[in-house]
Amino acid sequence: MPPRIQRHEKIIALVREHNFMPIEQLARELDVTPQTIRRDINQLCEENILRRYHGGATLGEGLENEELTTAKARRQNEKLHIADLIVEHIPDNASLFLSIGSTIEAVAMSLVKKRKGLRIITNNIHVAAIVSGRTDYTVIITSGVVRPIDGGVTGVATVDFINQFKTDYAILSAADVDEDGSLLDFDYKEVSVMQAMMENARRCYLGVDRHKFGRKALVRMSSITEFDAVFTDRQPSESMRKRLQDAGVKWFIAESEESNSD
C-alpha cells in the first residue's frame, strides 16, 4: 500500500477516535510535516471524508452520521447510568439549563421519567424534543444558529438569550477533562454558551463519561473546580481527588461494569 494511502487511513482512524485532531498533533503522530498533513486533509476533505475545522480536522458528512450513531450505541448504557445519577440530585419543580451532547440528552430522558413541574431552557433541539411532550414542563429553546451535526444552537444570540435567565441548575458536559482539571471543547461558540449557563445558574453539575478524559481538545471552557458536583463512571486520580476536595466539589460515580474494573 502506498505511504500516502497508509497515512490517510491513520489520519481517519485518529479523527474517528478523537472526533477532532489538530494538524500539529497529527504531524507528530505520523512523523511528517504539518504541510504534508494539510495536503492529506485537503484531499480527504475533497472526498467528503473529513472536514477542516479550526486548525485541524473533524469527520466529514460522509462519515459523521455513521460515527455519531455508532458512538451513541456503544456508550449509551454508560451515559444512561450517569444521567440517572444526576437526576437523583434534581428536585421536582426546578429550573434548569440543559446544554449540548448525548449525555445531556440522556439526562433529558431520565428527567421526563422521574421529575415533574420542571422549567427547562436548552440550546439543544434534541433535548427540547425529548422534554416537550410533558404538559407540566415549561420548555424554552434558545435563539441562535443550529449546528447540523448534533442539533446544538450556538452563537452570540444564544449567549444573549441565556443571559436573560437565572436557573436553579445548569447541567453541562465537556468534550475533554484534562488532568489539571481544565474542561475543554472543540468549538469556541459552544464554550461561550456553556460559560453563560454557568454564570446564570445557582448550582452547576458536570456529566462526563470515562471517554471524555484526556482527549486533548483546544478551547478552554472552565475548571472542574467551578462545578458543584461531577457525575461520571470512573474514579478520580489522586491529584484530581485532592483538587476536588480542596475546592469542595463532590464526585459521584455511576456504577457500571467498566467503572468497577478501574
Automatic annotation (TrEMBL):
Transmembrane segments: none annotated. Gene3D superfamilies: 4-hydroxybutyrate coenzyme like domains, Winged helix-like DNA-binding domain superfamily/Winged helix DNA-binding domain. The keyword NAD does not apply. One of its GO terms (molecular function) is DNA binding. Keywords: DNA-binding, Repressor, Transcription, Transcription regulation. Residues 4-59 form the HTH deoR-type domain. InterPro entries: Carb_Metab_HTH_regulators, DeoR-like_C, DeoR_HTH, NagB/RpiA_transferase-like, Tscrpt_reg_HTH_DeoR_CS, WH-like_DNA-bd_sf, WH_DNA-bd_sf. Pfam families: DeoRC, HTH_DeoR. It comes from the Bacteria. This is DeoR/GlpR transcriptional regulator. It comes from Neisseria zalophi.
